[in-house]
Amino acid sequence: MSQQExxxxxxxxxxxxxALSLHESAHAWMxxxxxxxxxxxxxxxxxxxxxxIDPIGTILIPxxxxxxxxxxxxxxGWARPTPVNTRNFKRVTRDDILTTLAGPISNLLAxxxxxxxxxVLAKSNVVGAEAVHQLAGAPANVDLLATxxxxxxxxxxxxxxLEVNLLLAFFNLLPIPPLDGSHIFRHMLPYNxxxxxxxxxxxxxxxxxxxxxxxxxxxxxxxxxxxxxxxxSL
Length: 234
Description:
The chain starts with a helix and ends with a helix. It has one domain (3-232). The protein is mostly helical. Helix content is 69%, strand content 0%. It has 10 helices and no strands. The model has no long low-confidence stretch (mean pLDDT 90).
């Protein structure tokens, strides 16, 4: 593994930690807006990673995915769940769904912001355009890291931010417990089916491991492909 690859993996890890902190703080902020102050009182309405880190999901699993061969650029993880007391909501179903959606939506907004920043960078100068085009899939005609030690790393950070936040958003929307999508899906189930759904336990983990990656890439692949097409057209 080259030094450049190690640096990129460090960037990925740092971006994932920020994306997870954004995700959980968005849950906490929305719950607070809707009447439940539990997470706010615990200091969870913050981007400070220390408040959100889960030793396994935020550190161990992502580092294993980064440095073991075969995982490529697929990087996900999880933080400590944001505590929510639905009894404090005025309209339990609606407010629980809104609080749940706040996390993935915050990551989608972060991905959108990264895309806009990449467009601005590509429009700002020729080097920026070449850097963005290379990251979007164009052939590398020049070693931009050597010729532009500031602009190229900036473009890399923005593009990794786009990728990581897209992956995290779609991963969390999967309707598999305990992911965010399951909190929404469970409101649509009849009582008997809900009891079975909530008791999946280890089956959920197996489903995540077996089908989580392909399902996420089924949605992220076309989305990222469309964004790359826009970036290459600049």
